[in-house]
Amino acid sequence: MLIYLHIPFCHRVCPYCSFYKHTPGSTPIPAFIDALIAEARQRIPQSGNTPRTLYLGGGTPSMLSPAHLQRLFAGLSEIIHLPSLEEITLEANPATFDLEKARLFRALGITRVSLGIQSFTPHVLATLGREHTPQQAASSVHTLRQAGIPSINIDLMFSIPGQSPDDWLNTLQQAISLQPDHISAYNLTYEEDTAFFDSLRRGEMSENEDIDARYFHLAVEKLTTAGFDHYETSNYARPGHHSRHNQGYWQGHDYLGLGPSAVSTLHAIRSRNVPDTAQYVQRIASIGNAITETESLDAPSLRIERIALGLRTNQGIPLAWLDAPALQRAHHLVSESLAHIQNHHLILIHRGRALVDPIAAELI
Ligand code: SF4
């Protein structure tokens, strides 16, 4: 089982971000951490599964102070045998930690830090509302390495308004030159309830599939040439640095999400915690859980999800998951050089990898 912990705090809110997050304001952080620990203590044994990976996401978990991180890990270590986990990831933003704090990450057992850099172009960072500079981003990678973090991921983003092909190329080259172990390169999406979505609706921003495909292919070309394995639509790893936690999601493993807004899927039941930090803390204290939505997933819905996620990976999906019309379509994809079939699996290739969402929609 994969364990996800949602830490909803950010210094400020980026205009494209749809995750549940907020500035800490007057949130009593120790009470929040105690609620997370209490939820873990209750739900991990209840799940009947053994934890394999731990992922602290958000939000900006690296914003937690050393004392708060120590409190959280001390609590977790009473519930989970942390050294047995295959991977412990912490999401971090540049300039939210120094060498001392990065050494604490390592001392707490964190094996992987995922750094939200997004771009090395100052005007693109400004459009994204990011607080850090390209220099701070580079220096944060060096700090993590100096602290001995075994695996470092850099998150990048493309198809951002005002980002030229040269800006994207420069960002890719700077990222490669820092020699991270893993790079995630995401196409900007306009999610509802974000400032970017409102700008799109007002016609101040626009989407362009041709630009998306061009930037996607630029990333594939530069990163695979630099020795990264393109193992999922948006993810590239050096040998031995594929994200175990994320691979677990794509392979349909059970996951337990703790914290406000966190989603879980356990034994084909999907549930979601209340997306409100104050209510989360209050519910955990009063009734012991914060689940406000539950849904049973039947076999057809699970199959659809597995197809959509599996097609994103370089393992593809077993042909046995496809019905007769989808199988026929799969053979067309092969004849159009968008996919190949290997060991009875359909695997997207070349342009097919950029078209994963429409292809998945056709096959399900
Ligand atoms: S993108 Fe990251 S830093 Fe920005 S608001 Fe969202 S969670 Fe916070």
Report the strand count: 15
Q: What overall form do the CA principal axes indicate?
A: globular
Mean pLDDT: 96
Strand residue percentage:
15-25%
* Quaternary state of the chains: single chain
CATH architecture of the largest domain: Alpha-Beta Horseshoe
How far the N terminus sits from the C terminus, by CA atoms, comes to: 26 Å
Q: Which ligands accompany this protein? A: iron/sulfur cluster
What is the count of structural domains?
Answer: 2
- CATH class division of the largest domain: Alpha Beta
Q: Strand sequence of the main sheet, in spatial order?
A: 7-8-6-5-4-3-2-1-9
What structural class results from the helix and strand content?
alpha/beta
Assign the CATH superfamily of the largest domain: tm_1862 like domain
Number of separate helices: 14
Largest beta-sheet details: 9 strands, mixed
Supply database-style keywords.
single chain; 364 residues; alpha/beta; pyruvate-formate lyase- activating enzyme; 2 domains; nine-stranded mixed beta sheet; three-stranded antiparallel beta sheet; 14 helices; 15 strands; binds iron/sulfur cluster
